[in-house]
């Protein structure tokens, strides 16, 4: 009488465990980089949301405003803005003298914590350079690793 084999052998199970280990060793770092890129995209969104209001304010008053939080009452020379996100914070002042200026967004949480993303303009906000790019003569900067920057901000 012939007996049929049921189940898996030890070597087959060890091969499956080794394959899963190799896949996990590749997938986990890639996923962590993906998470960090999504956190940095919040910084780009916070800074990018200020581009239009700043260019309009600058065109009207020939100067840059001071940014105040959403819950604050904006006074003369001030503009309400969302300054704090879950992973990043926008500086409350625009550096430079109109029409040249830059917005600094600091990463506060995650792998990119402590890094900065700078959006810069030299023409009153008509065009903005993000991160390590140059647009119409304006050059942004970033202390965040280039692999975490969105494509629009990469050198």
TrEMBL record:
SUPFAM superfamilies for the chain: Pili subunits (SSF54523)
GO cellular component, one term: pilus
Keyword DNA damage appears in the UniProt entry: no
GO biological process, one term: cell adhesion
InterPro entries registered for this protein in UniProt: N_methyl_site, Pilin, Pilin-like
Classification via Pfam families: N_methyl (PF07963), Pilin (PF00114)
Alphabetized UniProt keyword annotations: Fimbrium, Membrane, Methylation, Transmembrane, Transmembrane helix
Transmembrane segments: 7-31
Sequence similarity: Belongs to the N-Me-Phe pilin family.
Name of the protein in its database record: Fimbrial protein
Organism: Acinetobacter venetianus (strain ATCC 31012 / DSM 23050 / BCRC 14357 / CCUG 45561 / CIP 110063 / KCTC 2702 / LMG 19082 / RAG-1)
């Amino acid at each position: 009488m012939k007996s049929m084999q049921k189940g898996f052998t030890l070597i087959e199970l060890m091969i499956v465990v080794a394959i899963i280990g190799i896949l996990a060793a590749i997938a986990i770092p890639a996923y962590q980089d993906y998470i960090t890129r999504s956190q940095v995209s919040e910084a780009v969104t916070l800074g990018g949301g200020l581009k239009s209001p700043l260019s309009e304010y600058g065109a009207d008053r020939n100067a840059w405003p001071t940014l105040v939080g959403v819950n604050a009452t904006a006074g003369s020379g001030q503009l309400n803005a969302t300054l704090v996100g879950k992973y990043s914070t926008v500086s409350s002042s625009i550096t430079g003298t109109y029409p040249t200026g830059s917005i600094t967004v600091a990463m506060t949480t995650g792998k990119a914590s402590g890094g900065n993303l700078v959006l810069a303009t030299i023409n009153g906000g008509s065009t903005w350079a993000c991160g390590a790019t140059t647009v119409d003569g304006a050059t942004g900067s970033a202390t965040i690793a280039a692999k975490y920057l969105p494509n629009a901000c990469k050198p």
